[in-house]
Predict the structure.
Amino acid sequence: MSRVVTGWSYFGVRNPQHVAEDLDDMIRHHANAVLFTLSEEDVAFYLDTMRELVELAHERGLLVYVNPWAWGGVFGGEAFSGFLARNPDARQIDSAGEPVPAACFNQPKFRDAMLRWLDAASHVGADVAMWDEPHFFVFEWDAELAARKGRWTCRCPQCAIRYREQYGGEMPTQRTPEVEQFRHRSILAFLDEMSREARSRGLKNSICILPPTFRLDDGLLRYEDVFALEAIDYVATDPYWNEKSDATWVEQQYRQNAQWLLRHATASGREPEIWIKNFRVRKQQECFIPLATRISYEAGIRRVFAWSYLGSAYMSSLRSDDPLSVYEIQAQAFALCHEQAR
Ligand SMILES: [Zn+2]
């Protein structure tokens, strides 16, 4: 395999006949890896189908990632969560005492559910478990709950017990430095446990953190702490532009985040990865794709992925203006990475 790893995420199609054709197509477009989303629905109803899909990818020499797509509402992704419907007592509780549609990292039931996800990831034969954007509930991202902006999670009974154990008192309703620290430690402890469990099942681990330069309210105070987790192999980020971003923004964000990743990855012996936006790409923004890919490569990143296959053509909420053009442009950018690595 090339020293460079490139590939797309893939979702929405579970028919092996069509997936085989798409995998061949990806390979013709300079991919040597693929990420299959492995949602709650996939694990419940498509488990052995997913195993077939991973076999098809392996037969073709592709490296296979899977991610817990929107599991419990705490990772990135568009999938719905049956876990939340069945376990309302495992939801995060906000600082005003109201639940939010996301599971709490500290709830044993959710940790058990994630162990079942890891069993599934192992069963389907994946190579890498990708922990995508783990975060405490971000109110600004939820159109229906944005009015609660200013609140924070989590004050569920389980968090109250753990907070008392760690800090020796009742959990405040105000956002104190101890609360901030508790949230940070809660996510890290979850990732530490899950990545060790993944490794014990023969899987490698990639954590995709939200871009450090974005300073989002996801609960992690110091992103560099994820590099210290014992079972982490790769650390990624995804500085996706929005509709108003210009080329200068893309250049700065990809450069800063790529350099940050490389610095911490080198110091800790991990490998950095970066994600390029291949969804909701407006026509005039297609030039950002080769720009972001080139800047990441020049910064020293050798594992470059794009979300998602075919410019996200087949999910209308994510579809790019000209998805096939996005796909061809990303393929050319991948090809350049491989050529330069020779
Ligand atoms: Zn909680």
Observations:
- The radius of gyration is 20 Å.
- The pocket of zinc ion is lined by residues 92, 104, 106, 154, 156, 158-159 (CB under 6 Å).
- The chain has a mean pLDDT of 97.
